[in-house]
Amino acid sequence: MAESLKFGTSGLRGLARDLEGAAARRYCAAFLAHLRRRRQQGQGQVLIARDLRASSPAISADCAVAVRASGLQPVDCGVLPTPALALHAMALGCPAIMVTGSHIPPERNGLKFYTPQGEIGKEDELGILGALVDATAAEGAAVALDGYAAAGDRYRQRYRHFLRPDELSGWRIGVFEHSSVARDLLCSLLTRAGCEVVRLGRSAEFIAVDTEALADPVFRHRQSWIAAHQLDGIVSTDGDGDRPLLIDASGEFFRGDVLGILCARFIGAETVVTPVTSNSAIESVGWFGRVQRTRVGSPYVIAGMAEEATGGATVVGFEANGGVLLGSDLQLEGRVLTKLPTRDAVLPLLAVLAAARRAGQSLAQLAASVPLRPALSDRLENVDPEQSAALVGRLSSDTDYARDYFASIGQVAEVSTIDGPRFTLQSGDVIHYRPSGNAPELRCYVEGSTPEAAGRLLHWGLEAAGRALTRVGAISA
Q1: Which one, of 120, 128, 131, lies nearest residue 9 by Cα?
Q2: Using CA atoms, how far apart are residues 54 and 138, in angstroms rounded to an integer?
Q3: C-alpha–C-alpha distance, residues 380 and 445, integer Å
């Protein structure tokens, strides 16, 4: 199997050319064999959906062939947000496969697997890899049932009554559509909530939008859009609609964990589960009874939510990318929002917009009301994964090397290694390095005393890592 294909923080990822064809069919066959061994095949159907990147239709067809060869019925749910596919699959008691590379470049793609109970965990990944040894690539073609309308409608109905019809009346919100599978749905839901929607930047070709890489040139038009259309804010998602993006009327980004904490507060969460990369002040705000920290990746958040849900509390998970996961059914103003233990972008966007309107605040004022430390994140791209891992490993274990590495900005007071080394300096500033689990990238997360300090810290963190990796030839053009 091609070396570029591997499980990361959320699903299988790799080069599209390595996944298309026999590899996709083998991985799907292995997934279904794993389910068969665990007696989790469901009702005989397997739902398949995809994002808008060029390679996704062919890979979806490969998945359908593998499903048919396994004696099951493929159901084509078309171009659909990942959380919509997960919701529909759980409601029907069926497994599902999402063909998406999420936010990674268009030459890459991936598969997200769902059992009838929801997103797979790390044990399932090991089971799939074990079954891959004996898996074969089926030949031929397969005819799939059409499940697009039913899957899309279930997700739309989930949020159709989440906001009152006039909840956002008087606001003008831009929807940065690019190639997001959630673009039309967002426009529809916002219009129904009474806001004037301005469609922006729709693309016929796939654009990789990383909601954590805020310096990306893909966001360069935001200021001119806001000025030209007098917008109160801009919303968007990544490619497969499970990571949200929110920009206020001054062009400032909402960090993902700020979206998460505001959403959790709006819906009355009692317990929050979030990775170590989320802001360090979440525990101190006093809004939640309990906060559990995990490694980065939705499988770890989901496992944490399952632990916390046994106590009967309302459990919400969120990641630093802004995706919100519901770990328990939610009672909200007489309505029930069923649990959805996979990342969702629509819930936090609607919740935060509504929270601002109910408080009579602008988006900027709402963000300022959250007492979190200024935080930023970005990444180095085209980094050799082995050398990236070697760098963070040395920083974690070699105190002399770490002392010299950070000498120009301060002394290290504390190190956490839950998921990559997270250094807290004596000043209270934080620098956290973590190699991506499914792309040749090294991510850097920082917290500073002021937004300007956080910006300087992020610049330093990326420059320092870039120099160290360049010296060993770990960064390619």
Answers
A1: 120
A2: 23
A3: 12
d(CA 397, CA 290): 31
Dig out the tokens for 253 from the structure: 């980004």
> Is residue 376 within 8 Å of residue 458, measured between CB atoms?
yes
What's the chain's Rg over C-alpha atoms?
22
Distance CA 359, CA 348 (A): 16
One DSSP character per residue, 409-425 reads T--EEEEE-SSS-EEEE
Q: How confident is the model at residue 318 (pLDDT cuts 50, 70, 90)?
A: very high
For 372-428, how does the pLDDT look when each residue is reduced to its tens digit (9 = 90+)?
888 888 899 988 888 899 999 999 999 999 999 999 999 999 998 989 999 999 999
Residues with a known catalytic role: 102
- The mean pLDDT of 338-354, rounded to a whole number, is 96
pTM: 0.86
DSSP 33-47: HHHHHTT--TTSEEE
Burial class of residue 467, CB neighbours in 10 A (0-12, 13-18, 19+): exposed
Nearest CA to 64 among 137, 128, 143? 143
The count of other CB atoms within 10 Å of the CB of residue 229 is 15
Distant-in-sequence, close-in-space partners of 213: CB < 8 Å, separation ≥ 6? 377, 378, 379
Mean pLDDT of 178-197: 96
Coil, strand or helix at 49 = strand
Q: What is the DSSP letter of 281?
A: T
- Residue 475: the pLDDT is 58
The CA-based angle 109-114-117, given to 5 degrees, is: 165
Q: Strand order in 375-381's β-sheet?
A: 375-381, 441-447, 430-435, 422-425, 412-416
Angle formed at CA 268 by CA 174 and CA 352, multiple of 5 degrees: 10
pLDDT at 477 over 60: no
The pLDDT confidence band at residue 152, using thresholds 50, 70 and 90, is very high
- CA-to-CA distance for 131 and 37, rounded, in angstroms? 10
Identify the bridge partners of residue 174 per DSSP, sorted by sequence position: 198, 234
pLDDT in the model for residue 165: 87
Residue 454 and residue 376 in contact, taking contact as beta carbons nearer than 8 Å: yes
Structure tokens at 152: 């899309």
Mean pLDDT confidence for 297-315: 90
Do 381 and 440 meet the contact criterion of CB atoms below 8 Å apart? yes
| Pure H helices in 217-288 | 222-229, 256-266
Specify the pairing of strand 118-119 against strand 96-99.
Answer: unpaired
First-residue to last-residue Cα distance in the chain: 26
